[in-house]
Amino acid sequence: MSPERLAFVGGTGPEGLGLAVRFAAAGHAVIIGSRSPERAQEAAAKVKAKVARAQVDGRLNEEAVEAGEIVLVTVPFAGHRDTLKALAPAIGGKIVVDVVSPLAFEGGQIRALAVPEGSAAQQAQALLPQAAVVAAFHHLDAGSLMQLEERLEADVVVCGDHPQAKLRTMALAEQIAGVRALDGGPLANSRYLEEFTAVLLSLNKNYRAHTALRIVGIARAGGGPRRGGKAAPR
Amino acid sequence: MSPERLAFVGGTGPEGLGLAVRFAAAGHAVIIGSRSPERAQEAAAKVKAKVARAQVDGRLNEEAVEAGEIVLVTVPFAGHRDTLKALAPAIGGKIVVDVVSPLAFEGGQIRALAVPEGSAAQQAQALLPQAAVVAAFHHLDAGSLMQLEERLEADVVVCGDHPQAKLRTMALAEQIAGVRALDGGPLANSRYLEEFTAVLLSLNKNYRAHTALRIVGIARAGGGPRRGGKAAPR
C-alpha cells in the first residue's frame, strides 16, 4: 500500500507507541498526538530510537489530527469522550480507527465498563458523525509491538460500517509482520472485541504471558470476505 | 482422567450433540437430556452411530441430570432460565458447565442479548446457588465437533469461581483431540466469552468458515496458571 499519514490521538501510551513503531517501520508517516507537546516529542523520539529512518513527529492532539489522513485513537477510556468531542472539528470526515477498550481494574480483577453508546468505537461514531469510524487493534500486545524483531502471530479483527475505511484499516493492519486482518462485521460488533480484551488480560495475568488472538478455520489463501468482491487487500 | 458421567441438558441441538460425540469417543458416559424422551433417544442413537462403543443414553432432562456427575447446559438461551429453574432440585450441588451464548439473529446480523445477571453462566449460578457453575466450550464449532476424524485446533477458555470445578472442566476439555484448555478467570468474565461468539459467527458468515479460537503467546509446555500450583491437569 502507499504510505499513509497516521495521526495518533493519545499516542504516548504503550499501545499507541507500539503501533506507531510498527507503522513507522513499515514506511508510514506517524504523528504522535498528546495534550502535551513535550510528551508528544518525547514519544516521537522513542519511535525514532527504534526506527532510525522513521518519519515521525510529536504534536498537540489537534495539530496531529489535522496533519493525519487516518486518525488512530489510543487514549485511556477515561479521556475518550472529552478528547473526541474537542477534536471533532479537526477530525471532520477522516477515517478514525478506535483502539480503545473500556476496562476497569478493581481488586485484582479486570472488568468491562458499560458505555451508553454500546462501545468505545460506537461512542466515537456518535461524537464524530462525519467520520468513518472503524474498531481494530485491541488485541495486539503493546510490549510485543515494541519488539520490532518479534514477528507477531496474531489476527486483527476489524469492525465498521464504512467498507472503504474498513478495507484501508485492514490493509494497514497487514503491514505489521505476521498480522492477518479479518472483517469482523459491523461497528456494533466492536463491543465484543473491546470486552474480549478483558479475557486476554486475565490470561496474561494467570499465565504471565503476552497473549494475542488467532482465528482458526479461515484459509489464508482465498480467505477474502464473501460478498461484493471485498477480498482482503494484500 | 477417569471416566465421567456427563449429562447434557438440551443435548439434542448441534452443540450438545457435537460435544457428546467427542466425549463419548473419549470414553466418558453420556446421557443426552431433552424435554422429549423420544428426541433424547434419537440423539443418543446419532452419538452411537458416530461412536460404536459409546456409553450413551437418552432421557428426560431431569433424569439425565440425576444420572450425571457433571451437567452440561446446551439449551437455546430462550429456554435457559426456565429450564434451569425447573432442574435446580435435581442439579443440587453438581458441577454445571454452561455452554450457552445469548445471541439474537436479526436482519442478517448477530447481536448479544443483555442478561440481567450479566451472562448466561452468571444466570445459571444465580438460579443454582448450590452448584459449581463454570462457563466453557462456547467457541467450538458444532459441525467440526461432529467430524470425529477432524482434529480441532482450538483453545477452550474456561471461566468460573469454583477452582476444582474449573480444573475438572479444563481436564474434560482437553479430552477433545487438539483442544487446549485455558483458565480465563472468574465467572464474571463469562460474558466476554459468550458475546465473542457473535464475532466468530460473523466471521463464519463473512468467510464461509467454521472458525475457532487460538490464544497465542502462552507456551504449551509449563503453561499452567500462576498461582496456588494449579497447573493445568493433563
Describe the structure.
- The structure is a homodimer of 234-residue chains.
- Chain A has 8 helices and 11 strands.
- The first copy, chain A, is globular.
- In chain A, the strands form 2 sheets. The first copy, chain A, has an 8-stranded mixed β-sheet with strand order 3-2-1-4-5-8-9-10.
- The longest helix of chain A is centred in the C-terminal third of the chain and has 18 residues, at 190-207.
- In chain A, helix 1 packs across helix 2 (37-50) and helix 4 (80-91) packs across helix 5 (120-127).
- Chain A is α/β, with parallel strands linked by helices and 234 residues long.
- Chain A has helices at 14-25, 37-50, 61-67, 80-91, 120-127, 142-146, 163-173, 190-207; strands at 5-9, 29-34, 55-60, 70-73, 95-98, 103-106, 109-112, 132-135, 154-160, 179-183, 212-216.
- Strand 11 (212-216) of chain A pairs antiparallel with strand 11 (212-216) of chain B.
> What is the typical, i.e. mean, pLDDT of chain A?
93
Query: β content of chain A, as a range?
Result: 15-25%
SSE order of chain A, as H and E? EHEHEHEHEEEHEHEHEHE
Low-confidence stretches of chain A: 226-234
Percent range of helical residues of chain A: 25-40%
How many distinct beta strands of chain A?
Answer: 11
Inertia-based shape of chain A: globular
* Most strands sheet of chain A: 8 strands, mixed
Structural class of chain A: alpha/beta
Largest interface: chains, residues each:
A-B, 46 and 46 residues
In terms of quaternary structure, the protein is homodimer
Number of helices of chain A: 8
Read across the widest sheet of chain A, the strand sequence of neighbours is: 3-2-1-4-5-8-9-10
- Gyration radius of chain A (Cα, Å) is 16 Å
Please report the distance between the alpha carbons of the first and last residues of chain A: 8 Å
